[in-house]
Every structure is written in structure tokens, then in C-alpha cells.
Amino acid sequence: MTDITKTFRAIIKAKQISSDFNLGLGKRSKKNEKISTGFLSQAKIILSDITKLKYSLLESRTNYLSPIYLLSSTNKIMNDEQRHDYEQHVERQIKRCRDNLEELKSSIGLICFQGQRRAHFELVCAYLERDLVECTKIYSEQKCLRYKRESERKKIGRLDNDVLRVTLSANKNTTENLVENTKNENNSEMIVTRISQFDADEQEHQIPSAPLKSTELHQLQLENDRLYHDVAQRSEEIHAISTQVVEIAQLQNELFDNIFSQKDLIQNVDAAAVASNDDLAAAIIHIRDAIRNTAQMRRWVIFFLLVMIFSLLFLDWYNMTETSSSESDVEETEDDNVLPISSHVNIVHGLKTVSCLTLDSNGIRMITGGHDETMKMFDFTSMDKHFQAFRTIQPCPGRLLRAIEYSANNDMILIIPGDCQAIVVNREASGKHIVYKTVLGDMYVKDMNRTKGHKALLNYGCWNPSVNSQEFMTCADDCTLRLWSLNKRDQQVDVIRTKGESGRDVRTTTCTYSQSLYSNENCNLIAAGCENGNILVWDRRRSFVHVTFKCVNAHLQDHSITALKWSYDNQILASRSTDHTLKIWDIRKFNQCLSLNENLPNQFSMTNISFSPNDQFLVTGVSKLNNLSESDSGGKLVIFNRNDLSKPIEEILFNDSVIRTNWHPKLNQIFATTNNGLVRAFYDEERSPMAGVRLCLNRKERKDKSTNDFIANINPIDSSEPIEETREIYPEKNPQGDKKPSSLHQHIVQTMTRSNLHEKEDPRAELLKHAEEAERNPKWVTPAYVHTQPKPIFQQQLDEEEGDNDDFVPIFKKARKN
């Protein structure tokens, strides 16, 4: 049988290369290479075992099938015991290869589930299975041939003998013994010994044997006939057994084929079982839905019957409850119409205009900024009744602040200074607080779409109100709106150019997002106010080249639109302008103004609008006019009904102009800034929750840790003994300033110094005690100057007028200047 190992490898390699080429895979991942290497190594081991088994069967074919080993001059021909051991060895090898092949097939499902790789692995297993079947077939054919030859030999020889060995030996006396050992079916041994003697001249001499008697011959003949009949009977049994063995071998081959094909059947059964389970689950779901629908129908029938039964009773007490319900509705509407302005507190920011005001969505912190270039942060959970800011910073030194706003997640703060670059800082505004700073546009590029940022002063900016949004929008005097993202920091995300009816660029003064956090309707709109009085609205789902809604001449030309604000239902857009008007627009009919008020002075470009939490009212600020009478010269905080702006429902007078307003939806408190550095917070003690400024009203003033309590006693002190003018101060525990020695030498020196020092001793007096002895017995200083300077020279005495001259004083003796 030819060896197909190399051909098998070539086929597998060609299949793999063609599949990789068709799939466009140049390289395989390391993980797949490791898995393929493990699988192929195991396949190679199984192939080598099958090849060795095949070679062993082919090489041992002659020795296994040869029936005469006694006449062979070599020891390679097998006897019955060796054949039996050989058959057991071959069967163990076949069984081990079959088990390894089954394990290899089962590992395919763990390595890969589908694709070219699985097909490749299944092809490898198919080739191995084919080789194993061929080896099994060779072994079965050899075994059948052996039993067939053995049965034919037995028929010819009439005796079922198995020749074991012929041993020939020659000695110096030329004597040779021939011993034949035979085994019959009962495993008994017969030994026939023949002695042949040869003389020295190699002549054969036969020893005469005694003649047999007739009775002995007859007895031997009868014995021979009996043995012949027994052998013939046994040969027939052996022939039947050999036929059964052949049939068993054939059945074994069929069993192997059925076992190999049974796995595919099991897989098909498994797939069918899974499909049947899915179908059963779907049927259960349909049955459950049908039962549910039936039960729902029954519920509706029962409900209809109950309604019909209780309808008469309902009509009886309906008239009685109508009056009470109307009264309760009136009370609820009155509660909703009550404005939280019964009380107020003042929060001091500084001395200049407060142009920025923002609160986080939870109402815990408030940030103010103004023309004094400072930004102050207030925390209502930690402030006392004096409302002191816990942090004050200057995010842009030398630039006034135009807008500040918290993000939707309250984790970042957007700052719009009077500059070309917006700044994003973290919530605490501490440490490296600047998270992002927008890119500055190229001043020499005229096309606004090609610059990476603004190149003119910013007017306003705001965050995208969507949750987890990293986007914000800015507008500037370069006639553009730019959308920025913290995920793309090298330039803006989109550029929107604002143009007039003639196609020329128009300066953008304000911008805003729609309220996507509170309503899903019209949640993708962006609005912008222009200097020519137009209001432009874009839909983010479309291109920004053309506007979606446009209101021409919404306000007077050459007057800035200071604020645009969407209502919480995204249906109404309110606008405020320096033409002293306040208008509201319906996005469904954008060309027509729903209501307006033309007597609201506005002299600040940061004046804004705020809607109430119930979306029924809106509030804005009125500027102070110096050219009017004193009675009307102050600013105002005006509150209008959303449906009618002709007359305010509430006016709150201020001494100065009101600029920024904020009606917080959770706190139900109104915050307003002025141009004199104050922030006034309005609240209602009954309807505003215990949060915001209400948390700080009842808190006591916190004492500074550096101040000490001092209790003054105004009563005179009566004592018979006079009061000492000086008191001995209790000494400190460590007058050396708590300095610890850094080495053993310093420790010893400090210990000796401390032990010899006495606090009440005068060092000059102690030194003068030894002056006379030093003159009599000079030891150190005087002998050193005997030859060089026998007469001592002392420092010159200075007058009091010359005491200020430091030239005569050594450097190391000069007093330290504080």
C-alpha cells in the first residue's frame, strides 16, 4: 500500500493557502496560530501512529501468515502464542488511535465554530479516519486469510498439528536428535524422538526394530482411525469458528463505519432538538399571549359591566362632588400662580456689574462673574447667613466675563470672557482647573469655514443640555456660530455662518439650544440672534448651510438681540433686545409674534430671560435710565404671563439695573444680578423647598480658627493687693523651636549646652569673673599675638549721631532688618 502522507500534507497546505487567499487574510493572529499548532501537532501524532501500525502490518504479513516455522532457518516466523500476542497488540493500537481520533474531533467544537478553519479541521479528521479504516481493513484481511489457510492445512494434513520447532545439532560423534513438539486442540504435547546415527565415514546405518504383532497393529489402526475421526470433527468445528471469526471481523468493520457516521447523526439530532426547543418556546409564548389576550378581553367585559352597574350611583353623587372639585381646582391654580417673591436676601459679589450667573441642576452651587474679572463660587450646603464665597478666581486676567454656565452633568463649567477663546474648567476650579481652551482662529484667513476657531470677540456660549454631552456652542463678532466638543480639541466640530437677506455676513450676538432635557419635541434645534434683528433656527439633523426657520426683522436693526430662551415644551421662543422689547414666538408659526412688550429698557448686552418651572411665566430684568424722573429711574425685575406680555403681573423695584435672571426649576427661587455688584435671591417660605438660600438663613456665623475668644469685663477689679506690672510668662516646652538633632554629635553638644546654661545668669558677669586670671596666666589668645600685635587694637567708639552708619559695623554684626 502506497504512503499518502506527503500527498495529504500537500492537499492540506493547498487548501489552507487557497482559503486564505480567497478571504484576503495575509496573516493570522497569534492566538489562532497557537490553536492550529496544537491541533495539527495532535493530528501529526495520530497520523504517525497510524503509519507505524500500517508499516508493522505490512512487514509482519509474511511471518504472521506462514504456517511452517519449523522448516525456517530464522526466528522471524511466528508460532501460535506470538500470533496471539501480535493480534492483541494490533487491536490495542487500533483502539488507541480510534480514541485519539475521537478526542481530536471533539476538540474542533472548542477551537472554532464555523468558517474555513472548521472545514479544514474536519477534512484533517476525515483523512485520518480514512487511514485508520484502511489499517483496520488490512488487519481484518490478514486475520481472515490466516484462519482460511489454517483450515485448509488442517484438511490436507488430517491432523490438527502445529509444528513448533526442529532443532538440529551435530556433535563430534556425528549423532543428531530430532525432536518434534506438537500441540493438539486440547493443548497436550506429543514428543516423537528419532535417533539417527551416522558413522565416521558418513554412512547411514539403521538399527533393526522388533516386528509388531498383529494385535498391536490392529490396536494402532483402531487408535489411528479414532484420532482421524476426532481430528476431522475438530477441523469442521475450526472451519465453523473461522467462518464466524470472518463474519465478526466484517461486523467489526461495519461497526466502526457506523460509529464514525453516528456522530454526524447525533449532531443532526442535537440541532433538531434545539430547533424543536425553540419552536416549543415560541409556541409557549404564543399560547401565553393568547391566554393573556383572552384574560384581557374578560377583564374589559367585567369592567364594562361594573361601569354599567355603578353608573347610576355615579350620577347621584356627581352633582355633589362637582362643587367641591371646582373649589379644589381654584385652590390649586392659586397655588400655582403664587410667585416665590415674598422674601429675599442679598449676596455680595463685588462693586462692579455682575454680568454672569449660573446654578447647577441640583441647586447646590452658584457661580457669579462680572466686570471685575473675578469669578466667585458659592456653596449653599456650607455657607452661613453672610453668604461668603468659598472660592474666588480670575480665569482670564484683564478680560471681563460675559457668560458662565454649568454643564448638564454639573462636572464642568463653561466661561465666555471678553476674548476670542472660551475656557472650560472643572467643577471645583482648583488645581489645574482649565480642562480645555478653544483654538484661536487664523487672523489672516478670510474664509470663516477654514479657520479652526474664532478670530473675533466672543458674545455668548452655552452647553448642549443633553445628558452626558461633551458639546458646547459659542458665537462671536466674526459672524459665526461654532460647535465644540471636548473629544475633538484641535478645532471646532461645525461652523455655522449667519447671513442676512442680501447674503452678507451678520454679527451674531446670542445663541441657545432647545430644551432637549425636558421635551423630545423639537429637541434638535439651534437658535441664534443677529445684529440686524433676525432670528435664525437650524435643525441639527440637516445641513447648516440653509436655515430651517427664519424670522426676518424680529427686532429693530442695529440693536443687539441679547437673549433667546426656549420654553420647557420647546414650542415657544422668547427674545430680548436692546430695542427695549420682549417678544415671544411660536416655532409652528414663526413669522408672527404672539405677544410683545415695548417698554422694557435694556442697556446691557447680557440681559437674559428665564421661564418658570411650570412654564407659565417668564422673568427678565429692566435697566436703569438716568434721563427719566427719580420715581422711574430705578431698575426692575418684571414677571409676565407667558400668554400675554402686554402688562407684567409683578414688578419688583431695584435701585440699579437688573441684568441676569435665573428661575431655578428645582429650588423655585429667582436670582437676579445688578450693576452694583449684588445678587438678590427671591424665595417663598411656604412653597420654596428647604434648599438653596433657605439652607443658609438659620446658620450661625462660623468662627475663624485663627481668632481667639476674648471676654471683656467692664466692672472694676477690687483687690487689696496691688497688681504686678509684669508677669512671668510660662516658658515654652521647647525654646529651641522644636529642632531635633540630626546626628549623635549634635545631640551630645545640645545636651552639654542645656545642662550648663542657666536662665538667670548674666553671661558678661560670668566672663568678667575670669578676667583677672586671664591677665595673670594668658593661655590662648594673648600668646598668639605677642609678636605680631603686642598692643591690642579695639573698635573705634561711635557717637550716637553716627550710630546709623553701618560701614563701621562688621557685616556679621549687622542687625537683621524686618
TrEMBL record:
Boundaries of every SNARE-complex protein Syntaxin-18 N-terminal domain copy: 2-85
SMART domains: WD40
Protein name from the UniProt record: SNARE-complex protein Syntaxin-18 N-terminal domain-containing protein
Chain ranges passing through the membrane: 300-318
Species, as recorded: Adineta ricciae (Rotifer)
Swiss-Prot/TrEMBL keywords: Membrane, Repeat, Transmembrane, Transmembrane helix, WD repeat
Region (Disordered) residue spans: 796-818
GO biological process: vesicle-mediated transport
Repeat (WD) residue spans along the chain: 554-588
InterPro entries assigned to the protein according to its UniProt record, in alphabetical order: SNARE (IPR010989), Syntaxin-18_N (IPR019529), WD40/YVTN_repeat-like_dom_sf (IPR015943), WD40_repeat_dom_sf (IPR036322), WD40_rpt (IPR001680), WD_repeat_GAD-1 (IPR051858)
Alphabetized PANTHER family for the sequence: GASTRULATION DEFECTIVE PROTEIN 1-RELATED (PTHR16017), WD REPEAT-CONTAINING PROTEIN 70 (PTHR16017:SF0)
